[in-house]
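Appendix B, Record 12. Input sequence as logged:
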Amino acid sequence: MNASSTKQWIARFALLGLALAPAMARGEHVAADLHFRLIDNRVFLPATLNGHGPYQMLLDTGADVAGVSLDVLREIGAPVRGREQLGGAGENTEAVTKTEIGSVRLGGAAFRDWPAIALGFGAHNAVIGFQRFDGVAGQQVFRRYVVDIDFARTRLTLIEPKDYRAPAGAIVVPFTFYDGYIPLVRGAIAGVRGKFMVDLGDRSSLTLFGSFWRGHGLDDKLGPGIDALTGYGLGGPVRGLVVRVPGFSFGAATAKGVVARLSLQASGGFADTHIAGSIGAGLLRRFRTIFDYPHSRILLLPQTAQPDRYDRAGMWLGRHGAQFEVFDVVAGGPAEVAGLRKGDVVTQIDRRKVETLDLFAVREELRDPRYNEPLLVDFLRGSRAGQATLRLRDQLPGG
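Logged structural output:
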């Protein structure tokens, strides 16, 4: 095919409204071009493991080895290689099973002999809200390919590094490796500089670790903050003081209106004293984000993005079987004012049975400033039924 016919071929696809993968248009070798699901600010890819699946795997720069649920471990017939205790974002450690996945396929990209761990994700599923969590894909993917994540199109492309050329206009953010595997970049907040790891598996936008924000008095500069449950990771719940940050920069990239959490963890990954904090997918999704590990850089192309929204209900809803459970209530927030308490099991919201609702969609409603009408919340407290009138309101400035 000559150059003229190539241009005509591309033009015909454009007229038909079919989008070519950016890397294909530049003549690079694409190993996989996949649609991903963005769930709770996390990238989930379809994967085949040991010939079984497809499974939905979280793609995570913060994972040095792959992980699967105990159910998946049994389904794919992976061997048990021993057990150990591991820690994560939570303050405790958890028992995990060491294993190995013989073959992994992500679209057209094939991998072999992945070291992995397996654990029960029951608590994660309940608090975070996943109906099923199959596992995590980490460093094996990023070390092998350039990983191009187009959040606007929910497309992920794996590209051979030897052919890769950075797209025109990309913001280049150089990084080093922290603990030998996770990207570490330089950033600045409220006039204070620090080093931040880049954790694609983190649902939040920005986390400041305790020694950093306390050492620089950032609670006074950025607060007052809202003491709240902000997530759940390996090792248990993650609490923080939630604040809105006017601006945050890392490398030559900037983001405004960021909701950040000042970690209150006494131990675990978010109590690390050597770095300032963590940049999560909530911030990365403002860009087409390209991880180029072979060249130690992250490439960013800005996409249309709104300032972060924060919960306007003052509570954390998780799962309780087919229903929802209140896992946390903010002191003085709308939920507490309405009479809701930690441990209440929610059965209906605005006369809609929760069995028919998507939990993540409900959380989005509870962040949306357009929802200003009072919501009736039916709940069970032990064996007693109750009803609360929840009046949503902004808890942080800037919506």
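Residues 3-162 form a domain with the Cathepsin D, subunit A; domain 1 fold (CATH 2.40.70.10).
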